[in-house]
Write a structure and sequence with these properties.
- About 5% of the residues have low confidence.
- The protein is elongated.
- The protein is built from three helices and no strands.
- It is mainly alpha-helical and about 90 residues long.
Length: about 90
């Protein structure tokens, strides 16, 4: 073993350490550079109100879908009546 050349294990460990060190000490992503809004902690009340709003939107969408499906069913039932009458 030549003491002047590092082994492949030592080289990979050194490169992994360099990557980890650069990730830790690298430039932090701020709102100015990434374009993201700053995280604001929500209160439990805000969380519940948000969940209620999402659920209301979901139910409204499901009602629209149900109405569409019921119209489709009505059309098919009318077609069935016509076919049975013949």
């Amino acid at each position: 073993m030549n003491p002047q050349k590092p082994t492949s294990a030592a080289t990979s460990a050194t490169s992994q350490g360099a990557v980890a060190a650069s990730a830790k000490s690298g430039a932090p992503t701020t709102t100015a550079t990434s374009g993201r809004k700053a995280w604001v902690k929500k209160t439990p009340v805000e969380i519940v109100l948000e969940q209620i709003g999402k659920q209301e939107e979901k139910v409204a969408g499901m009602r629209k879908e149900l109405a569409r499906e019921e119209r489709e069913l009505t059309k098919l039932q009318q077609a069935k009546k016509i076919l049975e009458a013949q």
